[in-house]
Amino acid sequence: MKEIERAAEIIAGSKCVIALTGAGISVESGIPAFRGSQGLWTKYDPMEYAHISSFMRDPEKVWRMLAELYEIVLSAKPNPAHYALKELEDLGKCTAVITQNVDALHQRAGSRKVIEFHGTGETLTCLDCGRSYKVDDVDLKKIPPRCTCGGVLKPDIVFFGEPIPPDALRESFELARRADVLLVVGTSAQVYPAASIPEEAKASGAKIIEVNLEPTPLTNTITDVFCQGKAGEVLPKIVERVRGLLKT
Ligand code: NAD
């Protein structure tokens, strides 16, 4: 595929490559994305279940969905796309991964610099007293899980209607402005403000390389190289080619 060659050439010749990942990168790990007609989201409407007002109104209802999602996420393993980004970091060609995902699979693949734009499912906070829990210490079979004080626990993921963690927001946009290349993987680019990161990078002079099964609103507007296909197949090929180019 000539797009893979082109993407690899751009990455090999760049100083600051930043990856922006979305739910699509974890689909091959068995975690369904929001968009597309897969499993979990045919049963639960994400716009309804992922809104903070739904959680506050009826935590038990939202926790039934979260418990199913946790069951999938906690048994999921990184796939070749996550490992490819880790390898790119080892080659000095991925300064940071900004992820919208809450599944911690980049960290489990070994990526060291990961910004969790939408928080994490690894920890939970009591809505009453603010005590923090690791997910491994919480019995997710009790719905909703509660703190020792009796308060409901909420995962530290950013629900629709909640603000982005300020440090993640600031750092992500700083990186977007510094990037020579933004490698956008498996995101529909429809959830804001994350979807502004590619716009910010482009406006600051970065090349945009996109890896996705389908075109997105970025593809025909700001994307320079569109590599259509599964992230778990395309990214390892790009990285293999980058490694080859760096040796020559
Ligand atoms: P999205 O669900 O809106 O879009 C997923 C995108 O990935 C689509 O454009 C789709 O074409 C693409 N895709 C699907 N399979 C792919 C594959 N194998 N290779 C490459 N691309 C593939 O996801 P989003 O843009 O990230 O926005 C949804 C929000 O919900 C984000 O905050 C997201 O992180 C969160 N979410 C997270 C998880 C997770 O943590 N794994 C799962 C579901 C939703």
N/C terminus separation: 20 Å
Task: Give the uncertain stretches in residue-range form.
Answer: none
Ions, cofactors and other ligands present here are: nicotinamide-adenine-dinucleotide
Amount of helix: 25-40%
Q: Count up the helices.
A: 10
The percentage of residues in β strands lies in: 15-25%
Instruction: Give the assembly state of these chains.
Output: single chain
Name the average pLDDT: 95
Shape: elongated
Main sheet specs = 6 strands, parallel
Gyration radius, in Å: 18 Å
Structural class: alpha/beta
Count of individual beta strands: 9
What is the topological layout?
Layout: H1 2-12, E1 17-21, H2 40-43, H3 46-49, H4 52-57, H5 59-75, H6 80-90, E2 96-99, H7 105-109, E3 114-116, E4 119-126, E5 132-134, E6 153-157, H8 166-178, E7 181-185, H9 196-203, E8 207-212, E9 225-228, H10 231-247
Parallel strand pairs: 1-2, 1-7, 2-3, 7-8, 8-9
Antiparallel strand pairs: 4-5, 4-6
The protein binds nicotinamide-adenine-dinucleotide.
